[in-house]
């Protein structure tokens, strides 16, 4: 009789379109090597029209893969095509981590967890006594972050976005503690806030960031960014200039990868300085 363990493989993937610039293989490759696990993690480029077929082949076992990460533009489709999800992921409507379990495709979203773990790691106590948070941007990353901040007990979460309608839609979706604003309200809502996060692409190469009144935030405020190229973004530099504590976005990328690795390869990896340095060196190339 065949041993059922024979059907368990340790081959995982990251799927996206395009996928060339993904750093995920470097992260998982590092953990596989340091933990001595005989597994693999590869990039797979799948166009939107082919994604449902990819998922069907994954579920049937035809691809010989045990699960993987999902990135732009497939996160919403991955959520819809999965057989099982959890409540937090249902609220987001988007998944970034898939795994096969008992013949079913399970899906979750680890962005919020990665966001929180980065802050807990780099700035322990960052959310102690914090009441008001400013979230710049209203896209997919913003949703996961709003959810995470709400979970940590922030009383007021102000979403500020270029398109007011998207900010208002999130306020409506997430309930009374979440408020939506257009960019013109940014200076006003920043006053006295204890937390600020940029979830937009502002500050990435070719997308200059506006100057914001960071000096009006609470003196103990923490400022973070999900952009990690460059590591010290324009927003983080502005915040540092007025003496505020900052946390860069690289750790979110590293921490969001942990739950997937544990599912596919059976061991919990650590986010340490050697991994950070490996990715920083790669970003400089
Ligand atoms: P993601 O899923 O990565 O969050 P997204 O859903 O495309 O990406 O959302 C991108 C966010 O960055 C949005 O809040 C977007 O603002 P709009 O909703 O007005 O489009 C914001 N953004 C992108 N480029 C911007 C720019 N040049 N100025 C201001 N906001 C910008």
UniProtKB/TrEMBL annotation:
Catalytic site positions: 75
The organism's place on the tree of life at top rank: Bacteria
Pathway: Metabolic intermediate biosynthesis; chorismate biosynthesis; chorismate from D-erythrose 4-phosphate and phosphoenolpyruvate: step 4/7
GO cellular component, one term: cytosol
Record carries keyword Membrane: no
Binding site for shikimate: 22-24, 71, 96, 111, 228, 256
Documented EC number(s): 1.1.1.25
Residues noted as binding NADP(+) in the record, renumbered to the chain: 137-141, 226, 249
Subunit structure: Homodimer.
The protein's name in its UniProt record: Shikimate dehydrogenase (NADP(+))
């Amino acid at each position: 009789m065949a041993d059922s363990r024979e059907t368990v493989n340790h081959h995982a993937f990251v799927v996206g379109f395009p996928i060339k610039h993904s750093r995920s293989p470097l992260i998982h490759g590092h953990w596989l090597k340091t933990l001595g696990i005989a597994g693999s993690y590869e990039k797979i480029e799948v166009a939107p029209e082919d994604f449902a077929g990819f998922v069907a082949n994954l579920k049937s076992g035809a691809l010989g893969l045990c699960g993987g990460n999902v990135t732009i533009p497939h996160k919403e489709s991955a959520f819809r095509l999965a057989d099982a999800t959890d409540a937090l992921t249902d609220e987001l409507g988007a998944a970034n981590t898939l795994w096969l379990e008992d013949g079913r495709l399970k899906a979750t979203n680890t962005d919020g967890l990665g966001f929180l773990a980065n802050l807990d790691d780099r700035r322990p106590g960052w959310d102690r006594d914090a009441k008001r948070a400013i979230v710049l941007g209203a896209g997919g990353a913003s949703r996961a972050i709003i959810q995470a901040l709400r979970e940590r007990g922030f009383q007021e979460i102000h979403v500020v976005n270029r398109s007011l309608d998207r900010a208002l839609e999130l306020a409506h979706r997430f309930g009374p503690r979440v408020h939506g604003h257009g960019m013109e309200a940014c200076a006003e809502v920043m006053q006295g806030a204890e937390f600020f996060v940029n979830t937009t692409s502002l500050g990435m190469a070719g997308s200059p960031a506006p100057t914001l009144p960071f000096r009006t935030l609470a003196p103990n405020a923490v400022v973070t960014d999900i952009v990690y190229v460059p590591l010290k973004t324009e927003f983080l530099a502005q915040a540092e200039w007025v003496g505020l504590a900052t946390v860069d976005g690289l750790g979110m990328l590293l921490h969001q990868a942990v739950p997937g690795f544990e599912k596919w390869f059976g061991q919990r990896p650590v986010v340490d300085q050697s991994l950070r340095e490996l990715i920083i060196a790669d970003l400089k190339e």
